[in-house]
Amino acid sequence: MSPPRGAAPREAGGAVGPDDVTYPLQARPAGSVAALDEVLVACRACPRLVAWREQVATVKRASFRDEVYWARPVPGFGDERATVLVVGLAPAAHGANRTGRMFTGDRSGDFLFAAMHRTGFANQPTSVRADDGLVLTGIRVTSPVHCAPPANKPTPLERHTCAPYLGRELELVGPRVAVVLGAFGWQALLATLDDQGWVVPRPRPRFGHGAEVRITHPDGRGLTLLGCFHVSQQNTFTGRLTPEMLDAVLLRARELGG
Predict the structure, then answer these.
(1) CA distance 229 to 208
(2) GO biological process: any one (predicted)?
(3) Where are the beta strands (DSSP E) in 15-83?
């Protein structure tokens, strides 16, 4: 995927300049998901994230030492007219930051896409690499932060800087339901909806597994948020999130999405 027109190609390890901090604002006029992706993958707005994603691609995990890492921002993946949008946290350092596709190449993705296959959203239960034939129907996955962060913890400033990408993706895809994986994504999505003029309750609804909140827009649009524990190993290996629990959320999303 090449940088957008008007943007100079950036080499890995290149310096982050003063113009980079406003780069995400170029997402706003993007007229299609493909155009949005072209802008997103060239972004170098967050110096800490740029340094980390590129460092990870150089100092690789031993099991991936022969692979070439993507090491750029990771765009959303799936149906561009999805009724259901899954909102995570950020790409995993040796998962999506390696493969270039959301939730692909790590245990979290294994858990998520297996559930999507069981509930009829995915044509196969595995997501190993970007060219493995996986197709999503009626559903799309994205995140509030599109670069892998150190310790899997983006800062509030990084989340705010990246917000235009999530906002424009919401406008272009137009989902009816958002399955939000974890409190970070929940807070980020509510903040983005607030910025876009949606009627977000005050105080803001709290995240919880199984939480269901209906948000409306003055123009008549509606979006239902469904809370779900994140598909991280911390939750799936301990049984805090089971396959049955995730399936129930996805089936509820399918029901609401129509």
Answers:
(1) 7
(2) base-excision repair
(3) 77-78
Task: Quote the domain boundaries for residue 218.
Answer: 74-257
Per-residue pLDDT of 153-169, as tens digits, reads 999 999 999 999 999 99
The number of folded domains in the chain is 1
pTM over the 0.90 mark? yes
Sequence letter at residue 66? D
For residues 185-213, average pLDDT: 96
Average pLDDT, the chain: 93
**Predicted local distance difference test score (pLDDT) of residue 5:** 33
Considering the domain boundaries, does residue 144 fall inside one?
A: yes
Cross-strand pairs, 87: 142, 180
Residue 25 is assigned to a structural domain of this protein: no
CATH number for position 195: 3.40.470.10
Residue 44 CA to residue 220 CA, distance in Å, equals: 36
Q: What is the mean pLDDT of residues 57-61?
A: 94
> Has residue 177 been placed in a domain?
yes
Is 52 part of a structural domain of the chain?
Answer: no
> What is the distance between the alpha carbons of residues 109 and 102, in angstroms, rounded to a whole number?
8
CB atoms within 10 A of CB 213: 19
Closest CA to 163 of 149, 145, 179, 182: 145
Q: d(Cα 165, Cα 3) in Å, to the nearest integer?
A: 15
Helix (H, G, I), strand (E, B) or coil at 20: helix
- pLDDT at residue 10, rounded to an integer: 42
Percent of the chain's residues with pLDDT above 70 = 93
